[in-house]
Design a protein that fits this description.
Blueprint (H helix, E strand, L loop, with lengths): L2 H34 L20 H10 L5 E4 L9 H8 L3 E3 L7 H13 L6 E6 L39 H14 L24 H8 L19 H4 L5 H11 L6 E6 L4 H6 L1 H12 L8 E5 L13 E3 L2 E2 L1 H15 L10 E4 L10
Parallel strand pairs: 1-2, 1-3, 3-4, 4-5
Antiparallel strand pairs: 5-8, 6-7
Helix pairs in contact: 1-5, 2-4, 3-11, 4-8
Length: 362
């Protein structure tokens, strides 16, 4: 046998061994991904108590929306992600799932609401955080902010679970590792199964100066309202605005069962952020008030106003994200209101309520 032939055989054997090892390794990785199933959407994966992990919102929420053990839902952007479904559920003897996620467009929020309604014939409450995602004069894009250009996981919203097979990619491996860690983490919050994820757990220690640089757009902290006045839009001009996404929300809420309590919360943005879009938000509120008699069992509570919440800088992480104690405050107000008690408070205002709500405490 010649030296060249022997060398060729050696390389061929090496190539076969290398290819075999590579295929085996990739197969093991892929099987691990399927078994852990980080987004809980595969028909062959074992039953595990999978939870929301950082960054997986758009892929994990559809599975949460399908889970039969929830009878109520929270819809919105990250501005209401700190509303804890477990705490709120205990106050109302309900089982809330949170479908809120960062930079959720109106399109994404309605899609999740529709999916939840499709898999739950009896829905007790739907909580919607109303903010800039809904109060737009023109129709918004299907993806917002940093999500623009990303893939929309359409396959997760249909009923064919066999088209949900994951791609073998670094991103999928990353989420699999996070899910594995969450499943074996004794410190994992029990509410994680319902889609809740406290994003502030990943934040550094609270630094008011750093927060204020975000609140005031790198300016020094400003005096309270009255010192900064943004141009107000005339009433005639405002009435020409369409708010198409808000109209879609009205239709979606109207399609829900009459007995379902529909709760809209105008989110308490920091006062300076509110001032920047004051006319838009005020007109948005007026349009929602016009739903009176068109959407059954509708509760509209306005926290987007100057109050002890919105005028206090240390109630915020940034212009639209309040701290945990404010989330607990909102939960308490919503719970008492849904129990039939219209409680008085300086931090919010009732824009619409069903006639069954008592006014004795006001």
């Amino acid at each position: 046998m010649s030296l060249s032939t022997s060398s060729s055989n050696c390389w061929r054997s090496f190539a076969f061994v290398f290819l075999g090892v590579l295929i085996t390794l990739l197969s093991i990785i892929y099987i691990t991904i399927v078994m852990i199933d980080p987004f809980d959407n595969l028909p062959v994966s074992p039953e595990l108590n999978r939870v929301q992990v950082s960054g997986s919102d758009r892929f994990f929420k559809p599975s949460v929306a399908r889970r039969p053990n929830y009878d109520s839902a929270i819809i919105g952007t990250s501005s209401v992600m700190l509303i804890n479904p477990e705490r709120l559920g205990k106050k109302l003897d309900a089982k809330f799932a949170t479908l809120a996620m960062p930079a959720a467009s109106a399109f994404e929020q309605l899609r999740l609401l529709k999916l939840f309604a499709k898999h739950h014939s009896k829905i007790r409450q739907v909580f919607v955080g109303v903010d800039h995602a809904w109060c737009k004069q023109d129709r918004t894009e299907q993806l917002l902010g940093a999500n623009i250009g990303n893939r929309i996981p359409d396959e997760l919203y249909d009923e064919n679970h066999w088209n949900n097979w994951p791609r073998l990619s670094g991103t999928m491996i990353k989420y699999t590792k996070r899910q594995w860690k969450a499943l074996h983490d004794d410190m994992q919050e029990p509410a994680g199964h319902d889609g809740f994820f406290d994003f502030t757990r990943e934040y550094p220690p609270y630094d008011l100066r750093h927060v204020q640089s975000k609140l005031y757009k790198n300016q020094n902290p400003l005096p309270k309202p009255g010192s900064v006045i943004f141009p107000e839009i005339s009433e005639d001009k405002r009435r020409t605005w369409i708010f198409p996404d808000l109209m879609d929300l009205q239709r979606s809420l109207s399609s829900l069962p009459t007995e379902t309590k529909k709760v809209l919360i105008f989110v308490p943005f920091h006062w300076y952020e509110q001032s920047r879009s004051f006319s838009t938000f005020e007109e948005c509120k007026k349009r929602v008030i016009e739903w009176d008699g068109q959407v059954e069992n509708l509760y509209v509570i306005d926290f987007m106003r100057n109050s002890d919440i919105t005028l206090e800088d240390n109630n915020y992480w940034d212009p639209i994200h309040f701290v945990r104690k404010i989330a607990e405050n909102i939960e308490s107000v919503v719970a008492e209101t849904l129990k039939g008690n219209r409680i008085s408070g300086k931090d919010y205002n009732y824009l619409l309520l069903p006639e069954v709500v008592s006014i004795e405490n006001q």
